[in-house]
Amino acid sequence: MLLVPVGWYFLTRTNLGLELVSIGEDPETADTMGISVFRLRYLAVLIGGGFAGAAGAHLSLAFSGLWVPGMTAGRGWIAVALVIFAQWRPSRLLVGAYLFGLLDAFRLRSQSLSLSLEPGTPLAGVLNPGVDFLTNPQIMGTYPYLATIIVLTYTVARTQSDRLAVPDALLEPYTREID
């Protein structure tokens, strides 16, 4: 949680953060201003890779205590979806992370809960199969991914593509013009 305000402060109040934002929006202008676009992009990739490595280490060491193949289970794609949901704003990222974390925690906690009605209760025969299906651990494991699809669909439909706040130079290679 501390990284969100630190990240916001870094991106909006420090020279290096503002330079990083500028190379994401318009690398040609940033290069004209004397900012080393290539150096800063490589630095951003290295820092992002360091955070991804730290997250993987936390997942395998602190969360589960061991490493197994496929243990991330697509959580990286949820992280990408969180960035799109947050529209590249750190404050919105915290809200989305709590939402997806809540769904994942609910999946883990629900394995010990019994939400079925007692036999003999009115409508128990009708409701219990549905409740049992929806609280099945395998089905509940899909909830964070279903929420990702729903939230992304809602976010993209709600905002026009020009208001989605995607950095203008995202995924575009920069080639320096030589005079």
How would you describe what is shown here?
With 179 residues, the chain is mostly helical. It has two domains: 1-72, no CATH class; 73-179, no CATH class. It has nine helices and no strands. It has helices at 3-13, 15-25, 27-32, 37-63, 75-85, 90-110, 124-134, 137-140, 143-158. The radius of gyration is 22 Å and the shape is elongated.
Secondary-structure map with pairings?
Blueprint: H1 3-13, H2 15-25, H3 27-32, H4 37-63, H5 75-85, H6 90-110, H7 124-134, H8 137-140, H9 143-158
Helix pairs in contact: 1-2, 1-6, 5-6, 5-9, 6-9
Characteristic terms for this protein:
elongated; single chain; 2 domains; 66% helix; mainly alpha; 9 helices; 179 residues
Distance between the termini: 46 Å
Shape: elongated
Main beta sheet: none
What's the average pLDDT? 81
The whole-angstrom Rg is 22 Å
- pLDDT < 50 runs, ≥5 residues: none
Helix content: 55-70%
Number of strands: 0
Short description:
The protein is built from 9 helices and no strands. It is mainly α. Helix 1 (about 5-15) runs antiparallel to helix 6 (about 90-110), helix 5 packs antiparallel against helix 6 (about 90-110) and helix 6 (about 90-110) runs antiparallel to helix 9 (about 145-160).
